[in-house]
Amino acid sequence: MSVPPVAGARETPVANPLFEYLLRLGDDRLVLGHRMSEWCGHGPILEEDIAMANIALDLVGQGSSLLQLAGVTEGAGRDEDALAYFRGEPEFRNAQLVELPKGDFAFTMVRQFLFDAYSVLQLDALQKSTFAPLAGLASKALKEDSYHLRHSSDWVLRLGDGTAESHARAQAALDELWRFTGELFESDAVDEAVRDNGIVVDQAAIQSRWQQVVADVTRRATLTLPPAGASASGGRRGRHTEFLGHMLAEMQIVARSHPGAKW
Amino acid sequence: MADTQLPLWEVFTQAGHGAPHEHAGSVHAADAEQAMQNARDVYARRGEAVSLWVVPSSAIIASAPGDAGPFFDPGNDKAYRHPQFYKVPRGVRVF
């Protein structure tokens, strides 16, 4: 799969590329964590319910740390809560993959697997960054996401190579999600600019290793990779699917109704 | 009604290196890998353990309640089986 050129990519220099970059990292994890948290109390069995809540908490925690660092980098006095709860949908920089509704259990696990495989490679590169605060966060998050990957890839194997019903659901999820994966590997002016901060993530190298991991697991899961086709794009520049707004409304309502409330 | 639960596994956690693995509880899981992951998520997510064992519950041979008398009661009145029964002779250094 090749990454199509980014339509409408920003040509003008980005005012604060490091801030933008940290928003992308943080928003991916905050939004995916919130989607995963929607399973809390609804897991298929008690043990998996707890596992999914753990994963959600890990991701929200990573998002929180990254947004906190983004706020410091921005220098406008916004903390992680201000960034999480008081930005509108067009200001979110997550890839569209993570904002899609949680769907059925197969959809959630296939999506989680596709993201985990990406995140582990990305964090592995980021922990070598010369920007020490980010390298530290990446190193901690890598341990968490390595476990997430073990968990989600195990479920992809189980569902794909399980019953006719579970196979059909896992395949349907993969078919639906596939066009949202290309966005993870886009590279634009922001990625170029943060190289000055020692943030060097070779998107092409990550993509080819990601493809190997995904091809290996899906093959063993007896799933068929969809053909390359048109790729969704726009999340990194604030263009989202119709689903993010609804999710944010629910995620932000309490903080917005009671600004600064403590409990 | 048929039991639709996945098989049961017993979970043992080791709190620190050199400490014994102690029974923490049980999880349901389809196989050993899932049992290990479920044990990690349920019993070791707050840093409680440095090592985990999972064992199929069916592999554990438990004493029967009816054995309790013959198995355990005779130990009650045999004080000489406890080290405290013996006095340490003078001249032996007590550590």
Explain what the structure shows.
The complex is a heterodimer of chains A (263) and B (95). Chain A has 263 residues and is mainly alpha-helical. Chain A has a single domain (17-257), classed as Up-down Bundle (Ferritin), CATH 1.20.1260. Chain A contains nine helices and no strands. Chain A has helices spanning 17-37, 46-74, 80-85, 105-126, 132-160, 164-177, 189-193, 203-220, 242-257. In chain A, helix 1 packs antiparallel against helix 2, helix 2 (46-74) runs antiparallel to helix 5 (132-160) and helix 5 (132-160) packs antiparallel against helix 6. Chain A starts with 16 loop residues before the first helix and ends in a 6-residue tail after the last helix. The model of chain A has no long low-confidence stretch (mean pLDDT 94). Chain B is of the alpha+beta class and 95 residues long. Chain B has a single domain (8-85), classed as Phenylacetic acid degradation B (Ubiquitin-like (UB roll), Roll), CATH 3.10.20.520. Chain B has two helices and three strands; from the N terminus they run ββαβα. Chain B has helices at 32-43, 68-72; strands at residues 8-14, 21-28, 51-56. Chain B has a three-stranded antiparallel β-sheet. In chain B, a hairpin with a 6-residue loop joins strand 1 and strand 2. Chain B is flat and about 60 Å long. The mean pLDDT of chain B is 89.
